[in-house]
Amino acid sequence: MAHSEPVFLLLQASSAAHLSRHNPKMRLKALSLQSEAFSAVRSDIEKLQGPSESFVSDELMLCTIIAGLTSAWYDVNDLGLSHILGSQVLLYLWLQQQKNRLKYQQTFILGAFVYWFMISAFVAGEPKGCLEYQESLQMAIRSLEMSHDIVDDTDVPKRLRRIIPHPLTGFSIILLNSVGKVGALCRIRQNETIQRPGESLPDFLMAKARLVESELLEHTHSSRSNFTDPQDPQTTIDEILSVEEAYRCAGLLQLYTAFPHLLQRQAFHTFHGEADALEPESLREDKECKRLNSVGEFTPPQYNWLRALAFHILQILETVPATSGTRVLQGLAVLIAAAWLVDPMSVGFSSWEGESREALLEHSQLPLKKSSATKEQWRDIIRFGLRTHVEYVGLQQVSRVLEIVEVIWRLDDLGGKKCDWMAVVALQGLQTLFG
């Protein structure tokens, strides 16, 4: 990559913004450097206006990504919306220029863009437009041939090629693109609920939700043998693969939370009284699912399985050391799982035990680890982990995640309808980039 003054200034500015948490005097320096960098970027963009100047350099593309990803470092409430909108046009032009296989540097840039759009999809931009863009981006990614190794491996057979882990997307750009689509779909669902309360969701929305569910369920798990060890003692291949699986499961948890009717196809068993035996069980379950889903609630089997999935995600992340380089990427997955640290939902009583029983659900494509920990124990683990991470990383977004989960837990403990963390974040103005 050629020397780029805007990239150099943005890196300096973001470093100063990072330091400003513990040294407030650095904030003015950070803003000054950021302003200087933006002026240089605008100058480069203005050159694209002419008919003969439409070349978007790798350096300019990287600038827009750095600016967007670090916007919340200066102000935790800044979602970088202006950068998101502008970068979409630049990425289109940039991809149009790529005629051959992407070099490693370009693969890195595209991966960083996908990661940024994934975390922003949960909070920023018009959701329908965001989803459409994510879909077109997915098509573009699938049509590209990319180099995942620093060395030129063009002459190496595909089966022998090795992948160097991407610092932001790990091993799968496609997976994080699918998780980003979950964020957009959930916000569209929120809008539909507000605009048409009590009505069934549009068919197109359910169809897109099923498609994303399939993408996440059918995602091919990576094998360690395909990868080149990053030679980072604090970031192993196993840790990167664990975070990849946690994000896949977190995407499904968030999708099923917004569209619980998707779980209806799974086999579940509930405990019914003798009076219910006259009606076929499958018909009863179907009617109850549709009734509850229309008002954004869950059947007991759905509720308890989603809770178990959250515990499953946290068990995966618990295996990753606190010093791992992947910790900075875990914010969104932790938030999605932590929002489901609730008590189980009981249904009826067992006539022979006299004890409350939990409804059970089995997902044929997603077996879960069992956890003996209680919601209180997991909450304490989350609190300790996030507080440690605040000291370790020093970014305001981590403190914001802790603030959000405390609000969600307090609301859920009041009883009643399960709290939707995305709705609470929007209503209380707690949006930030969770990454």
UniProtKB/TrEMBL annotation:
<dbReference type="Pfam" id="PF11951">
    <property type="entry name" value="Fungal_trans_2"/>
</dbReference>
<dbReference type="GO" id="GO:0003700">
    <property type="term" value="F:DNA-binding transcription factor activity"/>
</dbReference>
<dbReference type="GO" id="GO:0000976">
    <property type="term" value="F:transcription cis-regulatory region binding"/>
</dbReference>
<keyword id="KW-0539">Nucleus</keyword>
<dbReference type="InterPro" id="IPR021858">
    <property type="entry name" value="Fun_TF"/>
</dbReference>
<dbReference type="GO" id="GO:0005634">
    <property type="term" value="C:nucleus"/>
</dbReference>
<dbReference type="GO" id="GO:0045944">
    <property type="term" value="P:positive regulation of transcription by RNA polymerase II"/>
</dbReference>
<protein>
    <recommendedName>
        <fullName>Transcription factor domain-containing protein</fullName>
    </recommendedName>
</protein>
